[in-house]
TrEMBL record:
<keyword id="KW-0472">Membrane</keyword>
<keyword id="KW-0548">Nucleotidyltransferase</keyword>
<feature type="transmembrane region" description="Helical">
    <location>
        <begin position="60"/>
        <end position="81"/>
    </location>
</feature>
<dbReference type="InterPro" id="IPR029787">
    <property type="entry name" value="Nucleotide_cyclase"/>
</dbReference>
<feature type="transmembrane region" description="Helical">
    <location>
        <begin position="6"/>
        <end position="26"/>
    </location>
</feature>
<dbReference type="InterPro" id="IPR050469">
    <property type="entry name" value="Diguanylate_Cyclase"/>
</dbReference>
<feature type="transmembrane region" description="Helical">
    <location>
        <begin position="117"/>
        <end position="135"/>
    </location>
</feature>
<keyword id="KW-1133">Transmembrane helix</keyword>
<feature type="domain" description="GGDEF">
    <location>
        <begin position="244"/>
        <end position="377"/>
    </location>
</feature>
<dbReference type="GO" id="GO:0052621">
    <property type="term" value="F:diguanylate cyclase activity"/>
</dbReference>
<dbReference type="Pfam" id="PF00990">
    <property type="entry name" value="GGDEF"/>
</dbReference>
<feature type="transmembrane region" description="Helical">
    <location>
        <begin position="180"/>
        <end position="202"/>
    </location>
</feature>
<keyword id="KW-0808">Transferase</keyword>
<feature type="transmembrane region" description="Helical">
    <location>
        <begin position="88"/>
        <end position="105"/>
    </location>
</feature>
<feature type="transmembrane region" description="Helical">
    <location>
        <begin position="147"/>
        <end position="168"/>
    </location>
</feature>
<protein>
    <recommendedName>
        <fullName>diguanylate cyclase</fullName>
        <ecNumber>2.7.7.65</ecNumber>
    </recommendedName>
</protein>
<feature type="transmembrane region" description="Helical">
    <location>
        <begin position="33"/>
        <end position="54"/>
    </location>
</feature>
Length: 416
């Protein structure tokens, strides 16, 4: 088999991959599938044009063909960035720009050996960018990414060797290049190995996506009950001497059934999504927030004391209370009640925490809703709140005094 036959086979394989990637994109609509599919399609076209050298004008088989190949390399890099959920940067065009700039120079354009050197130099730049993109990510597929990068590194070295041989031997065509066929086989091997490791990367991504779906609420995007349970077990074993307690915060939206009945289920869904955003934002990475089911939510947080747990619950409650949620033609204001249970991290039992938080939540509901209650062992007590007794109409200094008084009462409660 001569090198031109090998190039045609390579072209067919690349087009087959392009079709498979287009099919995957059609079903999943992830942008990187489309980008990679376009990259392999262009790569197939460029390689086919190179293989037809002598049967088509040189301008097509040299300038255009290799430009298309380097655009394809840029698309592969762009697909990697999309795969990593990063914006596509202008540096993906560097390999193609190097080739185009070189073709503007007569000593390079008119000399086969110089074109070979230019081609391999541009390819090495493209592969170097791909390697850097792969290895800088420390995600769950780190070993597979490095495995893939190792094969691209072999291709990088093969391009370097090809450039050196072109400088030394000064070939005038593929036929007079003594080691062209020898260098074709490692390139083909790396191409196939790179595809196989890329397929493994996609498989691992799909598995990770399934794992995420298993612990995530599909409507709100927050953790579901199973996800919260998993995070609870992880939070127990974390060593935090300054935060020895685990707080379980149980939330229930007030009057949610009436919202569904009055405004419709789409409005109800908008309320659930809005509260999920409030819960996640209010935690600021200090703990985990999730949906237990229906209009019930929960948060699991490591805290230093009862006051910290109450402050978090009150921040979530007050933030939601002050929001106006837009749902179509409806403008909805909604409140939430909260129940808190605490236990030392080493002795925390999820079932006991949930039962205690439920008792506190029931107390909050029975006390008029839009309140936070905390389980103190023998009973559940309402957390003193600053938004009571018409303080919205009170002057600023009076509201401040009430807030101070509420904090003092909360401190006294924590010392019981």
């Amino acid at each position: 088999m001569d090198i031109l036959t090998g190039l045609l086979i390579w072209s067919v394989e690349a087009m087959t991959l392009a079709v498979l990637l287009f099919s995957r994109w059609f079903h999943e609509r992830d942008d990187f599938y489309l980008t990679w599919g376009c990259g392999f399609a262009l790569h197939s076209l460029g390689v086919a044009l190179v293989a037809l050298r002598g049967d088509i004008p040189d301008f097509l088989s040299i300038q255009i063909a290799n430009t298309v190949i380097f655009v394809a390399i840029g698309l592969w890099i762009a697909g990697l960035l999309q795969f990593d959920r990063e914006p596509v940067q202008g540096f993906v065009a560097i390999p193609a720009l190097i080739w185009i700039a070189g073709m503007l120079l007569d000593p390079i354009r008119e000399n086969f050996a110089n074109r070979v050197v230019l081609y391999n130099a541009a390819a090495m730049v493209g592969y170097a960018i791909m390697i850097g993109t792969l290895v800088r990510n420390n995600g769950p597929s780190r070993s597979t990414r490095r495995f893939m990068a190792s094969f691209i590194s072999v291709q990088f070295l093969a391009n370097g060797a090809s450039a050196v041989l072109a400088v030394v031997n000064r070939p005038t065509s593929f036929a007079t290049a003594p080691n062209a066929m020898w260098l074709f086989f490692p390139a083909a091997f790396c191409f196939v190995a790179g595809i196989m490791s890329g397929a493994k990367l996609l498989t691992e991504r799909s598995e990770e996506k399934l794992k995420t779906l298993a612990v995530t609420d599909p409507l709100t995007g927050v953790l579901n009950r199973r996800g919260l349970i998993d995070e609870f077990h992880g939070l127990r074993i974390v060593q935090k001497a300054e935060k020895p307690l685990i707080a379980f915060l149980h939330f229930d939206l007030d009057g949610f059934k009436q919202i569904n009945d009055r405004c419709g289920h789409q409005a109800g869904d908008a309320v659930l999504v809005a509260f999920s955003q409030v819960g996640q934002t209010s935690l600021r990475g200090r703990g985990f927030f999730g949906r237990m089911g229906g209009e019930e939510f929960a948060s699991i947080v490591r805290v230093g004391d009862m006051i910290e747990a109450a402050s978090i619950a009150e921040a979530i409650r007050l933030t939601l209370k002050r929001q106006v949620i837009a749902a179509g033609e409806h403008r909805i204001k909604v409140t939430v009640s909260a129940g808190i249970a605490l236990a030392t991290a080493g002795e925390a039992d999820l079932d006991q925490l949930l039962s205690a938080a439920d008792r506190a939540l029931y107390t909050a509901k029975e006390s008029g809703r839009d309140r936070t209650a905390i389980d103190t062992g023998a009973e559940a007590s309402i957390i003193p709140a600053a938004d009571r007794q018409g303080e919205d109409e009170a002057p600023t200094d009076i509201r401040a005094n009430r807030q101070v008084a509420a904090l003092k009462r909360l401190t006294a409660l924590g010392k019981r």
